[in-house]
């Protein structure tokens, strides 16, 4: 049965899109058919990580939401860009980064039900095993949709007081929406912190499992969003942590 996985954070700057790209790629490299949808319509950018140039393209998630094109026609096969071969496939549905398109979305919004229908059609038409949704930070009706239809919700937080408080609010909403499975990921952890102690503290605070604890990595920062980190540095401890998270999603 296909799984829908939403990756969300209460605040921006948590590394959510980078996390989504690396996790989706990790799963696709294991031979699965994987789709990624950039629903961060006000501030899209995950296409850069997959080395997808949007200048020559004219079909994005925005076009689907405006009724211009079927959603499967907005999905780009980026498998070759990240070295996914054989049975694995990786597709990306990008959002438009054109200023006029972003302004139109911010002004008029979009039909939330249409987005939901699009997710289902995408899974069917592309025969996906996994659909990863890169959400817009914070809580809105659009975010509620992604959370509500997810088989797995991954919440990313940093060791930061505002992140802790915002994550608590998000988890309360997710529980009210009866999300089937929640996993926490702690990102950008300073080297001076005890990762095991931090993991235990967060699990006890929220009564949910921490799927991964990721260090604040200079190697990741230096890549500057030019490619997927786990592909360029497959033996790196950060890439190994993505393997652990991927395994827990598959078992969920």
TrEMBL record:
Alphabetical keyword list: ATP-binding, Nucleotide-binding
InterPro entries, sorted: DNA_Partitioning_ATPase, P-loop_NTPase, YlxH/NBP35
Transmembrane parts of this sequence: none
Pfam families found in the cross-reference section: ParA
Molecular function terms from GO: ATP binding
Name under which the protein is recorded: CobQ/CobB/MinD/ParA nucleotide binding domain protein
Organism: Lyngbya aestuarii BL J
């Amino acid at each position: 049965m296909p799984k829908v996985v939403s990756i969300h954070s209460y605040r921006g700057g948590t590394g959510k899109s980078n996390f989504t790209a690396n996790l989706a790629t990790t799963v696709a490299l294991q031979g699965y058919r994987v789709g990624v949808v950039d629903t961060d319509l006000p501030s899209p950018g995950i296409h850069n990580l997959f080395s997808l140039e949007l200048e020559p393209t004219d079909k994005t998630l925005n076009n689907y939401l405006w009724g211009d094109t079927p959603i499967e026609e907005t999905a780009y096969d980026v498998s070759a860009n990240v070295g996914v071969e054989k049975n694995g496939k990786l597709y990306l549905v990008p959002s438009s980064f054109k200023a006029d398109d972003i302004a139109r979305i911010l002004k008029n919004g979009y039909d939330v039900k249409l987005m939901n229908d699009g997710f289902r059609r995408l899974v069917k038409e592309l025969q996906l095993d996994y659909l990863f949704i890169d959400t817009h930070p914070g809580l809105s009706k659009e975010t509620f949709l992604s959370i509500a239809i997810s088989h797995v919700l991954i919440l990313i937080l940093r060791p930061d007081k505002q992140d802790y408080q915002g994550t608590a609010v998000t988890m309360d909403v997710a529980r009210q929406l009866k999300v089937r499975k929640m996993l926490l990921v702690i990102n950008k952890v300073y080297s001076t912190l005890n990762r095991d102690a931090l993991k235990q503290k967060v699990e006890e605070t929220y009564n949910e499992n921490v799927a991964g604890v990721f260090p604040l990595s200079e190697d990741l920062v230096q890549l500057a969003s030019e490619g997927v980190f786990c592909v360029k540095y497959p033996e790196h401890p950060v890439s190994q942590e993505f393997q652990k998270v991927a395994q827990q999603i598959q078992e969920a």
